[in-house]
Amino acid sequence: MSKRFKMEQLVSLCKRRGFIFQSSEIYGGINGFWDYGPLGVAMKRAIESLWWGEMVETRDNVEGLDSTIICNPKIWKASGHLDKFGDLMTDCKDCKARHRVDQMEDPLKCPNCGSANLTTPREFNLMMKTYVGPVFDEEHVAYLRAETCQPIFADFNLIRISSRQKLPFGIAQIGKAFRNEINPRNFTFRSREFSQMEMEFFCAAEESLDWYEYWKNERIKYYREKLKFSENVLRIHEHETLAHYAKAALDIEFEFPFGWGELEGVHHRGTWDMSRHQEFSGENLEYFDQDKSIKYIPTVVETSVGLDRTMLAVLCNSYDEDTADTKKEGQEEDKRIVLRLPEIVAPVQIAILPLSKKLSDKAEGIFKDIRKFYRSEYDVAGSIGKRYRRQDEIGTPYCVTVDFDSLENNTVTVRLRDSMTQERISADQLKNYFTEKFTK
Ligand code: ATP
Domain containing 159: what range? Predict the structure, then answer.
């Protein structure tokens, strides 16, 4: 995969077609921040709702949460983020580049210019700081959350009691997280503002390794079956060194064009988080098991994935340039760029394309029906070949073409993105046709 295409090709497509571009571009951008345009936001929401459906809505033992970005700063004291959430960084005195020491091949040599003239490595905290209230002093300092899971731990009792859940059960949240990354890079892979999709599963210590295995398998199945990642683009990286409280930890890695990178972490967190929040808040966070008549602090197994990273991985996995016979669709070029996106996350699932403006009435009628069920787009501008090319580039799996025969016999052509084959079907059958396609 890494040699198939260059990251710049995808970055350029994302900008050209309105998926993702630099935040505040007219001011020169801001490093580590990205905006999602019309197609980007549609795709991002589709991924988000796929994850939510998979992790919350189809399970009886996982509850949802939407907590605030700014929390009581004591949360971050308890979690350890204020005291130790950072990386060692060093500056090159010659070329002024800044590096994370753990990412340097040789910590004594600047990866940018090769100079050995580096500053002594310094600790750098990744939490983003702000002030709450009108006074900008230390008493009013607050932080933008660095991960979405800590409020889950803090809200555990409220959620358990209101949802009447017994252990084992999980709490999931999707939301923004902020990290003052030293070196944002590789497009959205490492950003300073990003979204996480996290699920914390609370259970008894003796069952926790079984749950860890269970969630690991569930998550791999999700990538294979729902996002259609083949075996060769995913790998598991078991952590060699574990935090003192953890019994196991692994990363699910994806092969990006710039190399293998972490997509998701599945972590056994022991009782660390819950014990710390109990200690710092003074609230009793123990669980009373009525069947066994015992009290204990729940052990946590976590699945944690970036929404932006998932989207980047899906885009990378889908990007293709093929030499299919595009000439027959009226093109001079015999090459096309195509995003082979899974139907479920494609920003446009069906495009309705009338061959001529004179067919608008008929085509608009079909469009209005279809858009009730699928993310759809209506496009009447330009030659049909150009319109197919655009739909290929944005990953639309199906185009419905309305032509003059459609007026005569109420049939339309469905054109498939991947094979570029066309089928003639009755317009009345479109709904059944797509129901079958989208549920297979
Ligand atoms: P890394 O080692 O890459 O800095 P991490 O191990 O600190 O990541 P976690 O804290 O485990 O990452 O975060 C869970 C998930 O959140 C990651 O697997 C990734 O998908 C996502 N994530 C973390 N940091 C970023 C970031 N700066 N930009 C985009 N997504 C991120």
Answer: 7-64+144-315
C-beta 91 within 6 A of ligand 1: no
Chain Cα centroid distance, residue 165: 28
Residue 125 — very low, low, confident or very high, per pLDDT cuts 50/70/90? confident
Cα(304) to centroid(ligand 1), Å: 8
Ligand 1 atom closest to Cα of 306? Answer: 20
Q: Is-above-0.85 flag for pTM?
A: yes
Are 306 and 177 in a shared domain? yes
CA of 64 to the centre of ligand 1 (A): 21
- Quick one: which atom of ligand 1 is closest to the CA of 196? 16
Assess whether pLDDT exceeds 80 at residue 323.
Answer: no
C-alpha span between 314 and 47 (Å, rounded): 10
Is the CB of 194 within 6 Å of ligand 1?
A: yes
- CA 189 – ligand 1 centroid, Å: 9
List the CATH number of the domain containing 411.
3.40.50.800
Is residue 136 in a domain?
no
Q: Classify residue 438 by burial, with Cβ atoms within 10 Å: 0-12, 13-18, 19+.
A: middle
Stretch 348-358: mean pLDDT, rounded? 96
Indicate if the pLDDT at residue 4 is higher than 90: no
Give yes or no for a contact between 277 and 258, defined as CB atoms under 8 angstroms apart: no
Residue range 243-270: mean pLDDT, rounded: 95
- State whether 305 and 229 are in the same domain: yes
Quote the ligand 1 centre to 158 CA distance (angstroms): 28
The pair of structure tokens assigned to 318 is 């889908």
Q: Is the CB of 32 under 6 A from ligand 1?
A: no
Classify residue 307: in a domain, yes or no.
yes
Structural domain includes residue 48:
yes
Residue closest by Cα to atom 22 of ligand 1: 306
d(C-alpha 268, C-alpha 166), whole Å: 20
